[in-house]
Design goal:
single chain; alpha+beta; 9-stranded mixed β-sheet; Fumarylacetoacetate hydrolase, domain 2
């Protein structure tokens, strides 16, 4: 396992993959945002930034936390949802012009791409980073050196839960990590292509993430949230409130069965799960 240091992580660059799990965007009410984005069948819609050090905007606020979701300051209610994902920490290499050339997997773990459902947001990133503790990353990640379908990640799964008022509810559908629409070398090649060629425009929620990465100094490490799973009925219709607990688990199904993970979380024993990256965040006011 790899334990990340928040001080070191401030030098990372963070971005996500949109629409990499069939049906999630429709459940999240965001499919219409990508009406003008043309992609290959089953391909993700694009990449979006959630942490860009030194850019001089809201995106330079360090958003990662391994123990809390801090609600945004607002005079009106905001609808926040857990977005349970696998996130991959990569070591990046660059061309002479500072553009990403290749990504080498270092670790994978549980991630909460917690999002505000803002129908008036012009860019996807406006729903992603509203301040400290707006994103979740498990304190311990699983070391890997590849993303092959038949490699170390082949038996990993993603599960997520909401704990509220003494009850535990499945929030996202328990899903295999290799079940993403794009995965392995196909995903890596696609990400590099998007970093070079996705420019964004006024009529899409996308931005020139590859240029942001270059302008941030071509950092050695990038953290990529590779897509949110489909919601359960509870997850699709339930928004976070103060006092909730968000739980996301990336676990090895060869070690622990899905029903055993669910039982452990319901009993508060998720910290004892073996071969698992576990993220538990308490929802608090800013």
């Amino acid at each position: 396992m790899l334990t990340w240091d928040p001080r070191e992580a401030r030098s990372w660059f963070g971005f996500g993959v949109a629409g990499n799990f069939a049906g999630h965007l429709e459940q999240a009410g965001e499919a219409g945002d990508f009406a003008t984005v043309v992609t290959a069948p089953d391909a993700p819609k694009g990449v979006f930034p959630f942490y860009v050090p030194g850019i001089g905007s809201y995106l330079e606020t360090f958003p990662l936390s391994s123990d809390e979701v801090r609600l945004p300051e607002s005079d009106v209610p905001l609808n926040l949802q857990i977005e349970p994902e696998a996130a991959v920490l990569f070591r990046a290499s660059y061309d002479d012009d500072g553009m990403a050339r290749a990504l080498e997997p270092v670790a994978v773990g549980a991630f909460n791409d917690c999002s505000i459902r803002r129908p008036d947001a012009k860019k996807l990133s406006e729903k992603k980073n509203w301040g400290p503790a707006s994103k979740g990353l498990a304190a311990s990640l699983i070391r890997i050196d590849e993303l092959d379908h038949d490699g170390r990640t082949a038996t990993l799964r993603i599960a997520s839960f909401l704990r509220r008022a003494g009850e535990t509810h499945a929030y996202g559908q328990d899903s295999p990590v290799v079940g993403y629409s794009y995965y392995g070398q196909v995903l890596l090649d696609w990400i590099i292509d998007r970093l070079h060629h996705q420019l964004g425009s006024d009529d899409t929620p996308l931005e020139p993430v590859g240029h942001y990465l270059r302008d941030a100094g071509s950092p050695e490490h990038v953290l990529v949230a590779i897509g949110a799973t489909r919601y359960t009925e509870v997850g699709e219709s339930t928004y976070l409130v103060e006092g909730d607990e968000s739980v996301v688990v990336v676990y090895d199904a060869d070690v622990t069965a899905p029903e055993e993970v669910a039982a452990a979380v319901a009993e508060g024993r998720e910290g004892a799960l073996q071969a698992a990256s576990v993220l538990v965040q308490k929802v608090r006011r800013a």
